[in-house]
Amino acid sequence: MSVPMTVSIRPATSADLPLIAGLIRDLATYEKLDHQVRFDEAALGQHLFAPRPHAEVLIGEVDGEPQGFTLFFHNFSTFEGRPGIWVEDLFVRPAARGAGLGKALLRHCAALAVERGCARLEWSVLDWNAPAIALYRALGARPLDDWMMMRVDGAALTALGQPG
Questions:
Q1: What SS3 class is residue 35?
Q2: Beta-strand relationship, 82-92 and 65-77
Q3: CATH numbers and ranges of domains, the chain
Q4: By CB count within 10 A, which of 2, 42, 46, 140 is most buried?
Q5: Active-site positions?
C-alpha cells in the first residue's frame, strides 16, 4: 500500500535562491539545454527579489521537500485590454513526477491569474515533451498552431538596439 503524498505550493523567498538556481539547472539538463545556462546567481536574485521584481517564483513541495518550481511574469494583451501571466519555466524533478505537483503549480498560476484579473495564462512547451503536452491538454490548454515564437538575442539584440 502506497502512502499518499502531500503536495504544497509556496511563494519563493530570497533564501530559496540556491534552490531556484539548482532547479533551473535541472530543467536545462532535462531539456538538453544545459549548455545555454549562463545566469549569474546574484543577478538572478536581484531580478527576482528586488523591490520591483521582474518575475515571481513558486516552489512546489512533495512531503515538505522542494521538488519543482514555476517562474512566471505578467505580460499584457492589447486585444483583451488586460494583463496575462506568462509561465517561463515549469519543472518537476523526475522522482516527484506523478504526484500531481506539475498540475498543482499550474493550478496555482491559474488561480493567481484569476485573482489578478488576467485574461490569459500562457506558456510554451518543447514539441518532443509528450508527457507535458498530455498534461497541459488534460488541463484544458490548447496549442496555438497559427503562432510562431520569435527571438532576438546576443549580437543580433545588440545590433537591433542600436540607434538609426
A1: helix
A2: antiparallel
A3: 7-160 (3.40.630.30)
A4: 46
A5: 136
